[in-house]
Amino acid sequence: MVSDQYETESLCPVCLKKIPAFILTENDVAYMYKICPDHGRSTSVLWRSKIPISSWIRNKERAFIKNPVTSVKQGCPFDCGLCEEHRQHTCTALLEVTQNCNLNCRFCFADSHPAKEKEPSLEDLRKQYQTVFKVSGSCNIQLSGGEPTVRDDLPDIVRMGTELGFSFIQLNTNGIRIADEEDYVRRLKQSGLSSVFLQFDGISDEIYKKLRGRPLFEKKVKAIENCRKFGIGVVLVPTLVPGVNTGQIGEIIRFAIDQAPAVRGVHFQPVSYFGRMPHAPSDEDRITLPEVMEEVTKQTGGMVSAQSMKPPGCENSLCSFHGNYIIEGNVLNPVTKRESCCCGTTQAEEGAKKAKAFVARNWTGHDCETGEQQKVSSDWDMILQKIQRNSFSISAMAFQDAWNVNLERIKDCCIHVVTGDLRLIPFCMYHLTNTEGRSLYRNLEKGSLYEADAVRTMDP
Amino acid sequence: MEADKNEKNPWMCGRCQRALVLEKVKVRYLEGNFEVELYKCPQCSQVFISEELALGKMLEVEKGLEDK
User: Fold this and answer.
1) DSSP code for B43
2) Is ipTM > 0.90 here?
3) Over 50: is that where the pLDDT of A268 sits?
4) Which residues contact A387 (CB under 8 A, 6 or more apart)?
5) A129 CA to chain B: closest CA distance, Å?
6) Could you give the CA distance from residue A321 to residue A325 in angstroms, rounded to a whole number?
7) pTM, whole model, 2 decimals?
8) Closest residue of A to B36, CA-based?
9) Closest partner residue to A383 among B36, B66, B68, by Cβ?
């Protein structure tokens, strides 16, 4: 029985042309249906839950980009830059410091590999930082790739960012070099690195062999230990692949709690099908956001309640959930609670400010981990210390691929990748690839589907 | 405001005209629950929060718990 339906716009997974799409809920499952006049029908599951997709949606009053890079010529998503019609500010800007990697994973957003490709120079990266500052101000920065730690000059890249005024710089890494080279970690900390976004798919080597091609659990543990030594906050980032590691959600959370306060939280990423993937996805290849929430509750024996996990205030509601907690003993006590009412409208700009502040505050490492004791003179100081040391977050972000992309969500995106030609591209649009692995914005030099158009929309 | 037990309490409850006493009080912000020592009326349990505390440590705690 169809209980809910609405219309939006999407892309054809074959030719990436813009086409109308319909989101229909049938028996607690929301699907996207779309038809390309040239390539036919495509259906993808979006949401499987007794919580209706419509009840998760929060209305926001859009933000306006103060210094758009591109003007609107062909309409979303073909003018990314950011364009003047984009509806949310940058919360996190990603700088891809290399396309090279020391792994060759079965799943990879970036389709990175061990081969040596030319890396952006420090001067190129300075221009990227400056572009972010001009368009988005002092937002949070994530250094990504490829595997950023293949660069020996990564500490210089971090320092450049801090000197240019970015106060929160996070490293997205598989953790191998972080585990192997303590001195490298020390130099990253001295350069101003706040946080490590650590690829962490589970607590058994079988999972790493399946997803990453080699056993890595010990490396992950060692990487966390080295971050703890130097007061760098760690967020564990599991890519959730049905049939591989969705049964480890609870164990990952328990492991993360054991590793707190070095580990500040877990950020799940349900697998998306772009970049490098084994095959085109069926519905069974996906785990949707509410299913992740249900597994979090189930696999933690109810310690993490469903009500403690909320829709976001920054990005589009359908992109993520999060819950904030304080660790007491080995238990998570919730700080957040999902409101049953979704009425009213909030300001997107306010949501972006709060999200930036939250990430910078809660995902940063603290000096108390390096042995410095803080002065505690009252109950309020004790509470502050507890919040600083014992805050813990559980969150997830559902990236969009060519099969399930909803352009309304793209317009609300707050995570933007900086390109070599100094544009800021919403994360999913940057990574999205068609059935042949070709993209709209990534690897333009390799021949994007819309290269000519994309270049034409550039402002001088 | 950091309450000092040895300091003579200058505050009276406006409603009950009783001198406030320092006591552990449960406070809650969002879903976070904590216990802190605050001046409290022994009769009606109304607590006194000074401007200094409200705009100082208490605000720091609120900001620390703020959601995104």
Assistant:
1) T
2) no
3) yes
4) A326, B32, B61, B64, B65
5) 24
6) 14
7) 0.93
8) A379
9) B36
